[in-house]
Amino acid sequence: MTVPAFDGLRVQTDGAVAVLEIARPPANFFDRPLIAAIADTLDALSLDDSARVAVLSSEGKHFCAGANFGDPSEGSDRPSDARRLYAEGARLFSSPIPIIAAVQGSAVGGGLGLACAADFRVASPASRFWANFARLGFHQGFGLSLSLPRIIGEQAARRMLIGAERVDGTEAKSLGLVDRLAEPGSEQAVALAFAREIAELAPLAVRSIRETLQKDLVERIVDALDREATEQAWLWETADSNEGIAASLERRAPVFTGK
Fold this sequence. Notes:
By secondary structure, the protein is α/β, with parallel strands linked by helices. About 45% of the residues lie in helices and about 15% in strands. The protein is built from eleven helices and nine strands. The strands form two sheets. The chain has a six-stranded mixed beta sheet, sandwiched between helices. Strands 5-7-8 form a three-stranded mixed beta sheet. Helix 1 (about 30-45) links the parallel strand 2 (about 15-20) and strand 3. Helix 1 packs parallel to helix 2 (about 80-95), helix 5 (about 145-150) packs across helix 6 and helix 5 (about 145-150) crosses helix 10 (about 215-235).
């Protein structure tokens, strides 16, 4: 099996399971090239009959904190950059290989979106899931408008998106956002065990069943991403968004004015 090489993403196989590990600790921020590398790897794996399930994990303390708004290059052409990023993100939803996300620490903002692009999530009680967009002053992205309510239901998604509620691993399990709970530090090991169980099933049937369950998801995700990018573009120009991002970087409470 040959997969694309990319600095910041480690790929290894464990029998019929492929492990994709983001290696940008501690926050494991993503950008377009990293998401493209994950999508390219999944595409390559889908052509190899020996890889039946993929585990998406991260090195270090946290799963993923989304985009790095503290990066000086971030925001130079943020709306266009977001659309290019989301075009790559949409490819994750079309992968024919089942994906299990091993979520240690926090999955925040776009990092939550990345986790929700997977079929299943493994976390510990110490894990944290946070759609912090309203606290940053702009619209959610990475397909969360569709993926999150699809996983946990409309009302719970409203609490997380509109109310910016933080959810720990135990509550996430009760909501259906997490499929299996692990002890802190063993999230990847439990995800691997889960993946091996799926890999032992009939692979053609697994892919066929998954394709049926996905239905028109990819087309709907593309529409959701377009709406998200459009709303983000104008909200990023507001004073509230500038304040929200600045407050996050300065680790203080934001003061919003509705402007």
